[in-house]
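S.,

Sequence below, as promised.
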Amino acid sequence: MSGNYVWHGEGWDYGAGGTNDKQSVPLSAVGLVTYTPTTGTFHSDLILRVYGTNSHNLRDGTYTVDATGHGTMTWLSGSGNVKHIDFYIVNGGAELKWIDTDPPGTVELSTSGTMTKQ
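The prediction came back faster than expected:
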């Protein structure tokens, strides 16, 4: 797995950051992730939407992929929390299907999506 993938994801965020602190709120994201296999690193450039507000999110992190096509990504959020997703490579590397695997009590309650090779 290497090169550029278009990230698309949707899910639910814990409501404490906005006006809705009693319920979860929807979130969505779209952007570009670039994977560099020689270093096991990635760079993401995403537009996030939560509470009806867009924000630009740049992150760098690490990733691994095993022989079954299962992979993990790890990075630091803007607030300094360690973030995790698990993914599987599908369609010969044309797509990645992913899910947020952060532990309970983190900001994102549940997110999932697809990354499509450019």
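DSSP finds no helices and eight strands in the chain.

Coffee later?
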